[in-house]
Amino acid sequence: MKPRPRYHEPIVAVSAEPFLVTCLSAVYMEKVCAAEQAFVTLATNDSYARGAMVLGKSLRNHKTSKKLVVLVGPHVSDQSRAVLHKIFDEVRLVDVLDSGDTAHLAMMKRPDLGVTFTKLHCWTLTHYSKCVFMDADTLVVSNIDELFDREELSAAPDPGWPDCFNSGVFVFRPSNETYGKLLQYCTEHGSFDGAKAIFLQPPLGQCARYATFMAPRHSEPILMSLAVSLSVSIEEPIRLLRCEGGDQGVLNGFFSDWATADINKHLPFIYNMSSIAIYTYLPAFKQYGANAKVVHFLGQMKPWSYTYNLTQRTLRGDVQASSQPGFLLQWWALYSAEVLPMLVREYGDQPFISGCEEDAAASEEHVQPLMSSAERKQRWEQGQADYMGIDSFDNIQKKLDVFLK
Amino acid sequence: MKPRPRYHEPIVAVSAEPFLVTCLSAVYMEKVCAAEQAFVTLATNDSYARGAMVLGKSLRNHKTSKKLVVLVGPHVSDQSRAVLHKIFDEVRLVDVLDSGDTAHLAMMKRPDLGVTFTKLHCWTLTHYSKCVFMDADTLVVSNIDELFDREELSAAPDPGWPDCFNSGVFVFRPSNETYGKLLQYCTEHGSFDGAKAIFLQPPLGQCARYATFMAPRHSEPILMSLAVSLSVSIEEPIRLLRCEGGDQGVLNGFFSDWATADINKHLPFIYNMSSIAIYTYLPAFKQYGANAKVVHFLGQMKPWSYTYNLTQRTLRGDVQASSQPGFLLQWWALYSAEVLPMLVREYGDQPFISGCEEDAAASEEHVQPLMSSAERKQRWEQGQADYMGIDSFDNIQKKLDVFLK
């Protein structure tokens, strides 16, 4: 696939002097893109990057006329970034800890809100007049450019507490002023949902549970102590799945009149259809689900947590427990056909987690190479925890028992 | 407690001639009550009647200035009706099958929507200018008379599919014209959620699942075949809990612009707070739950499905799996203190299901008297299924196996 041109390329060709490049680039961005609009997503690691790639492809396939922007965290590999460059118009590195600005200061005060600060960074994309943010675990199944007719802050209700909007899809106006206010709100008020720790309830795994904790994210010892601090985890057979940032709490706190002020800022639920709706209200899903324009793989295993058999075009693992096998397969069909070849090209001979297997490989599924603690941590953070093996509930329970003694 | 006066009582004293009574009564109702407003609920059996009693008491305790009306089905006992008369201003018998009117005709065409037709009957209360309908499984924890400032049809979002409103609490204007249109809509379109069959997922029972079926309600063989028709029920260890009417589907179909038309018709979620919200989005529940004005015991066991220990003021059974133990205990405290004494007075020496036990009785909990099939059916229909015994999942599974052979 031919890479799409990026904005600053013609400017780079004019001069190699860094300062001038920056200035010209800024002027160019300001003039050319001011009236432009963009879909924006966020990839904090290679797993979410795969989600962002599929999302970007799904937007292109449904012929969006808008620009595509992805914010990437420092943990995304060079190869993933290269692929993202081919799908998105703009790939912007966001490293809050390295920024030295107010966001960094805010982060020092509230380390628990790391991903939140990274996401809020989307308000700094002031070379666009209006944007639609979409989480990397969403999939577009229809053209949704009409969302740009809406005003900030438009979003769909969250099924868990429907007077809150879900922050997986929202319309916003980039603005440094709003960005500053959001950072200030963050540091002063935090997020009412801190970070979400999401549990799976075996053996069915259909019931995601949320809990709050305030601690730096992605830290295994903290996940353990978190589990200890929640009475549910001791009495009930659950397993920790992953943690998510608290951006939804911050944004709902900041845009606090969403529920009561303006019906036009309520996006229909089909623009952010939680895939668990099939369990929470099947008749409504049957009635309205076919009209879905955006599917959000919320609160359960992500599409990339499964393994896809390329030969049989089926998913391995507890798919019965999954949110919506049809949408999951749609995600994998797009990934395997249009994203995987690009990843293969970038990685070349180097091994990488593709999430796919072919029939021959399927028989080797129980061969488990030993992992270092660091590798295991990395896999956990990427949503690739070995739920049946070393990260199984039994093993976690053993660790919890140590805490409790 | 002193019985509250009913409207037609002075009229009855004027004349014993039935026709004249009817006319005068109608004139009286028209003149005196035209500008009046009322809370309306519905009791289809003695269990729901107990719910209605607690709801009525909770409204009185929070000093509502509105009238209280309860619609009762023909299966509600005389004793229950007598107690309802003491709490409510108006107790209106609704027997759709006996009515011989358009509702009866509609019912013949759509027998699956039995309870729906009974509920829609509330639109015929034209001697009130505006009403708020509340399901009998709701509990008022604050004065909510301000709901009468809203217009038809105002309701809170349903957490399962938040572009639908939940029909457990809604503001409406009684009108024979609207009633006729609703009946017509029912017979022509049915309800997209037919009747809901609600399952419990053992062993935790925290995950309610909904499914649609179109068949006369409250029929055990149909419940069985329904379970067979749902693939989930065969592969997964669930148990049928109860069925609910399809009024929510009808009302959402009829008032189909609710999600998009007028923000003032979106009641805040705290006016119909699903008690399962604690599981679906705990941080939001912690943030906003304390402001709850109405709790709705939705989608799981009803308060009256438990047994309450009067001595210890605790609930017996799988309360951990319940929606919200605090609100449940609040319901039982009100029931045991203010409703139970009235029931005891009405039933006198006759035995009835109080739902309560004292410490001495607690030791006898495993003594299970044999029940006839009819008694068992009645208990099932009243939400008093013997989940651990004869109605256990294992026993239902055995019956299902017979169907599958």
TrEMBL record, chains A, B:
Pathway: Glycan biosynthesis; glycogen biosynthesis
EC number(s) per entry: 2.4.1.186
SUPFAM superfamilies reported in the protein's UniProt record: Nucleotide-diphospho-sugar transferases
InterPro entries xref list: Glyco_trans_8, GNT1/Glycosyltrans_8, Nucleotide-diphossugar_trans
Catalytic reaction(s) noted: [1,4-alpha-D-glucosyl](n)-L-tyrosyl-[glycogenin] + UDP-alpha-D-glucose = [1,4-alpha-D-glucosyl](n+1)-L-tyrosyl-[glycogenin] + UDP + H(+); L-tyrosyl-[glycogenin] + UDP-alpha-D-glucose = alpha-D-glucosyl-L-tyrosyl-[glycogenin] + UDP + H(+)
Gene3D superfamilies according to UniProt: Spore Coat Polysaccharide Biosynthesis Protein SpsA, Chain A
Record bears the keyword Nucleus: no
Keyword list, A-Z: Glycogen biosynthesis
Family: Belongs to the glycosyltransferase 8 family. Glycogenin subfamily.
Function of the molecule: Glycogenin participates in the glycogen biosynthetic process along with glycogen synthase and glycogen branching enzyme. It catalyzes the formation of a short alpha (1,4)-glucosyl chain covalently attached via a glucose 1-O-tyrosyl linkage to internal tyrosine residues and these chains act as primers for the elongation reaction catalyzed by glycogen synthase.
Protein name listed in UniProt: glycogenin glucosyltransferase
Species: Labeo rohita (Indian major carp)
